[in-house]
Specification:
Length: 188
């Protein structure tokens, strides 16, 4: 690297090709234009806002926070794909990754990235908050028993939600449902 080249981290943050933010206790301290644009906000409008404004419902915001803590405590980082909400109410699939600056405070200060994956995975059915949560776990390849453990639901209740999703997506098998949720059509 050329010694005369100075790395300007603020410029890198500002012009990163994915949405990025610094948060403390799930409140956005600073975010780049890619993030505000992705969610349909004006420059700076998300600074000081709770991540809650990016979720379809308060319940989904709270459940996701509860799910993140043990994973961050174990791994020091978190990543998933979930349905998020733009400022105009439109729902879309988003890949979210984050890392705590202090591993002992999983939801304290952290760096988060957001990538809109809606082109690969459109939201094509009206889903309840619980169905969105179950769908996100199914896309991760989790079984009904694993989903039940993570959501404090019974495996039978998870199966009922899976059946509703299969009807909504006109899927005859669980594999076909996952392919449709991922926006890749029926398996070949």
């Amino acid at each position: 690297m050329n010694a005369s080249y100075a790395i300007n981290y603020e410029t890198i943050f500002k012009f990163a090709p994915v949405g990025m933010c610094i948060s403390v206790n799930r409140v956005i301290q600073s975010c780049n234009d890619a993030l505000t644009s992705m969610f349909g906000y004006e420059h700076g409008a998300l600074d000081g806002q709770s991540f809650q404004v990016l979720y379809p419902t308060l319940d989904e915001f709270l459940r996701t926070g509860d799910r993140i803590i043990p994973i961050m405590n174990t791994k020091g980082r978190y990543s998933d794909e979930r349905i998020m909400r733009r400022s105009n109410g439109e729902l879309f699939w988003c890949h979210v990754s984050g890392r705590a600056l202090n591993p002992q405070e999983p939801l304290g200060a952290g760096v988060w990235t957001f990538e809109d994956v809606s082109e690969k995975r459109p939201v094509s059915a009206e889903l309840t908050p619980r169905e969105r949560e179950i769908a996100a776990f199914l896309v991760e390849g989790k079984t009904s028993k694993a989903i039940a453990r993570e959501t404090d639901l019974s495996p039978r209740t998870v199966e009922m939600h899976r059946a509703k999703l299969m009807r909504k997506f006109n899927a005859s098998t669980s594999s076909e449902l996952v392919h449709k949720l991922m926006g890749v059509g029926a398996p070949r």
